[in-house]
Amino acid sequence: xxTSDQEKIERRVFTSFFQGGIxxxxxxxxxxxxxxxxxxxxxxxxxxxxxxxxxxxALILLIAVFLVRKFVVVPxxxxxxxxxxxxxxxxxxxxxxxxxxxxxxxxxxxxxENASLRHVFVGQIxxxxxxxxxxGAAAYFLxxxxxxxxxxxxxxxxxxxxxxxxxxxxxxxxxxxxLFTAFVFLGIAVxxxxxxxxxxxxxxx
Amino acid sequence: xxxxxxxxxxxxxxxxxxxxxxxxxxxxxxxxxTGLTWGNLSANxxxxxxxxxxxxxxxxxxKKPHTLLKLTDKGRKAFQGYQNKMKGLLNIESPxxxxx
Lengths: 205, 100
Fold this sequence. Notes:
The complex is a heterodimer of chains A (205) and B (100).
Chain A: H1 3-16, H2 22-42, H3 47-77, E1 80-82, H4 84-113, H5 115-118, H6 125-142, H7 146-168, H8 173-199
Chain B: H1 5-8, H2 10-20, E1 22-26, H3 27-34, H4 38-50, E2 54-61, E3 64-71, H5 73-93
Antiparallel strand pairs in B: 1-3, 2-3
């Protein structure tokens, strides 16, 4: 067993702690946060009202995911403190999306406030670029290749919804496309959780 | 070649391998990763602890007793030494596919 074998074992151990559909649940919640505001704004609510209406839904789901993780998943997987190298990678993972979101907000503000630049800042671009960067960073720092695929799906869902909206000519097509994908991810998360619960039982000493 | 028999046992080698890739982990983690039974894990952990290869830290988590296991410096050195010896042994024992 050489260093690369140990790295593989460490990676396998680390990724095993993301069983139970947590990644898919977070992806689904991320998409719900895009889909519900789009749905509410098309139902006559303002941008802020739509965001405020979405917040409790996302919050309830996030709390549910946190509780399932704390009381169902972790007791079955055990507690581990990873090596400093892995902890550094996790802290880098937090920095990249945070900087991306801040940069996205600043660039968005500059472009939308400046009348001459407004036409350049096509509304869809942040919805494509930000998920790709966020999920790409997560895939790289967590060594999880499937996150690249999730990033591509999340990044493409907004332009796909817009395209379908122009083809079908219905104002509800964009939120429906996003929400459908969100519920698919949440469904996958539930399937993964059930399969996890069948595989792992809470240990009794 | 002098091989550390304490490390050489499959169960203990597995325990040391999975403890070497983390800073510390509990018994449930080791049970899941190694596939050992409680009894087998407990017996082998005791032997490794007696040899000073692993350290057992007992604490309370959410008012419940919680046992954490950690590889000591001595244990890490023994594990690395075992790896190097086995690598050397396998390099000598297995000739290259095209060679004699």
